[in-house]
Every structure is written in structure tokens, then in C-alpha cells.
Write a structure and sequence with these properties.
- With 248 residues, the protein is mainly α.
- It folds into 2 domains: 107 residues, no CATH class; 122 residues.
- It is built from 12 helices and no strands.
- α10 runs antiparallel to α11.
- The longest helix has 30 residues.
- It starts with a helix and ends with a helix.
- The model has no long low-confidence stretch (mean pLDDT 84).
């Protein structure tokens, strides 16, 4: 675990703090022909070697640097628009590389797998994983179905209003439910009140930004968001409380 954390710290520093923006821009433009790609790989190797502290064994740091460079080239080749999906995939690939290197270093592959399986196949872990997944897409569909009448009413008031970012409400709802689920599981109920208060302030500011939209639409839109939010929060709290019954 120590080796993994040291290598992870080296990766975060090398990839996000010790890589100037003009290096990134040059890499995107020239890919493997960019000199900054190899300078970045060198920084990764040096950071990994220094943080790991195994002075007689530079091979792990060299291997991480080599794989890091390959992952970066693949990402540059296929990620032309800088999407979030490729960013996450890139970082996951780096973390997997670090984890595999750490496992090889401590030579406990079977022990690590057994430990992971032991952790995974427990009622507490399985219940929490199932609950978190339930709070995401399934509840989004449920809340969407329950609030459809009010959504249709808003469409009749202002057809083609187009006043929302694409899928923003869905992602906001999933993020809120996941936070509430975690808060209930760890018994931090006061944090839920802070989340509700923060969202209330945002909706208050939105309600006062009238512009050319009819006041009736703004009022109904605020009520629609409030109903959807309360439904979403209630579902997350109920799921979290039910999940806790499986391991308490």
C-alpha cells in the first residue's frame, strides 16, 4: 500500500503540477514527435524513482515512465476534443499501471487479490455498492417519470424554452443523491442540511433572474425543481437507511 501511495503521489505531481501548459499544448499538436512528451516522461520516471526510494532498482520507475508515455500518445491520438471520458480513461490507465507496479514490487499478487475479494464479498461492501448504484440512474428515471406532468406543463407555458444545459439536471441529481447516500451511510446528517441550503440559494438567484420569461413560468419552474429535488433526496435517504440495515 505504501508503494502504491508513493507512486500515486509522484504521478499526481508529475502529471498535474510539474507539467507546464505549453508542454501539454505541444504534445497535443505533435504527439510522439514532441520533445516535451519525452521530457514529461522523464519527469514521471524521476519522480517515481525518488518517491519510491529504491535506489538500487530503477526498473519500476522506468517501466511506469514508459507505459505513461504510451498511454499519453494513445490519448492524444484518439481524444481530439479533450473529452471528460478520455480524461478519466487516461487517469484510470495510469492508476492501474501504478497499482500493478506496486503489487509486483511487494510480490503479493495472490494476497492482494484475496484481500480484495474478501473486502468485496462482504454484506457491507455489496450493500453499499448496490445502494450507490441505485441512487444514480435508476432514481433518475423514477424522478423523471414522476415529474413528467409538471415538465409538460412548463413546455406548454414556454415552448422550446431551452433554458437548461443538456443533461445538467440529471448529472446534478445523481451527484446530489450520491452525496446524500454517503452522508447517511457515515451518519453525517448535518451535511445534508448544508447541501439543501446551498441549492436553495442557487434557486433563489435563478428565480430573480426573470428577463423575458413570464413570471408564471419562473414560479412554476422553481416549484418543479423543488419537487424533483425533494423526491430525489427522499429516495437517496430511504435507500441509504435501508442499506444500513443489511450490516448493522
Amino acid at each position: 500500500m505504501t508503494a502504491f501511495l508513493l507512486l500515486l503521489l509522484a504521478h499526481v505531481l508529475a502529471d498535474f503540477y510539474w507539467q507546464p501548459s505549453h508542454w501539454v499544448a505541444d504534445k497535443k499538436e505533435k504527439s510522439y514527435r514532441s520533445k516535451y512528451l519525452y521530457m514529461h516522461v522523464g519527469v514521471v520516471v524521476i519522480a517515481s524513482y525518488v518517491f519510491l526510494g529504491q535506489w538500487a532498482n530503477p526498473l519500476p520507475a522506468l517501466a511506469i515512465g514508459l507505459v505513461h508515455g504510451i498511454i499519453d500518445v494513445v490519448k492524444i491520438k484518439f481524444d481530439k476534443k479533450g473529452t471528460a471520458g478520455w480524461f478519466v480513461a487516461d487517469q484510470v490507465a495510469h492508476v492501474i499501471t501504478i497499482a500493478l507496479t506496486a503489487v509486483v514490487l511487494i510480490s503479493t499478487i495472490s494476497l492482494s487479490l484475496d484481500t480484495f475479494k474478501t473486502w468485496l464479498y462482504t454484506p457491507k461492501t455489496l450493500a453499499q455498492l448496490a445502494g450507490a448504484l441505485l441512487c444514480l440512474s435508476p432514481i433518475s428515471f423514477l424522478v423523471g417519470i414522476l415529474t413528467r406532468p409538471w415538465r409538460d406543463e412548463l413546455d406548454k407555458l414556454v415552448p422550446d424554452a431551452n433554458d437548461n444545459l443538456a443533461n445538467a439536471g440529471r448529472w446534478i441529481g445523481m451527484s446530489e443523491r450520491l452525496l446524500i447516500f454517503v452522508f447517511v451511510v457515515v451518519s453525517q446528517f448535518s451535511a445534508i442540511g448544508f447541501l439543501i441550503a446551498a441549492k436553495s440559494l442557487l434557486r433563489y438567484n435563478d428565480k430573480n433572474a426573470s428577463g423575458e420569461v413570464p413570471p408564471a413560468y419562473i414560479s412554476k419552474k422553481s416549484e418543479y425543481v423543488l419537487v424533483g429535488t425533494l423526491m430525489s433526496y427522499t429516495c437517496a435517504i430511504v435507500i441509504a437507511m435501508a442499506i444500513k440495515m443489511f450490516y448493522q
